[in-house]
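Researcher: Let's continue the batch. This sequence belongs to Vacuolar protein sorting-associated protein 28, and it's 226 residues. Same format as the previous ones, please.
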Amino acid sequence: MNVFEEQKLYHTSQEREDYDNMATLFSLITTLEFLERAYVRGAVPEEEYTVQCTRLLAQSKTVMKLITNPSMASPRFESAEAFMRHFHMDHPAAAHRLSLGVPATVEHAPIEASALTAPASAAGAQRVAETTQNFITLMDALKLQMRAKDQLHPLLSDVLRTYAPRGSRQEHEDDDVRAKLLEWLILLNRLSASEELDDAQSREMLFDVERAYTSWFQSLPSHGQL
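Model: Same format as before. Here are the structure tokens for Vacuolar protein sorting-associated protein 28:
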């Protein structure tokens, strides 16, 4: 071997494309890590963070489909976590965000103070209506036996985007319920495109969603009467 000769990672066009895809995913994960840290420090406005994080998550999801493609010539990776372990990527913030598949603004659902303190206002009424619609849509989907990742993940993301604790009296219970919904979001996000929830999981998820809806509805002033 000539030590001065350039050593190629690939020998075919397919191998070259595979390495290009892996390099793209590596850069996306690294960028996501820096974005998460910037958001935590308050260096990125909330609205801009949400847009950029959503874009990075979508791009990562698209590239992951190429990385896990059976036609890939180089070693395939079953998940983003496996990819990060293989390349010794110490990016915990990006790993957490990829496991959820939604921005932190959806995970924690920050809402306007007016929606909390004055639920009878226009902003509060709109938030209540939107949250109710999101809950009902998800529950109906589960009752109609929709179990695929691409069917349920967007609906659950919409619920978490609007659902938030609405009073200190129920704060602990609301946190527990929300944590359970986040667990389902992570589980759905980790499913492959061909996987679905089984019967037991579907019933359990419906139970948890109905519990969350009941808890949220009962926390509204006069039980949701605007």
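Researcher: Any comment?
Model: The chain has two domains: 14-106, 121-219.
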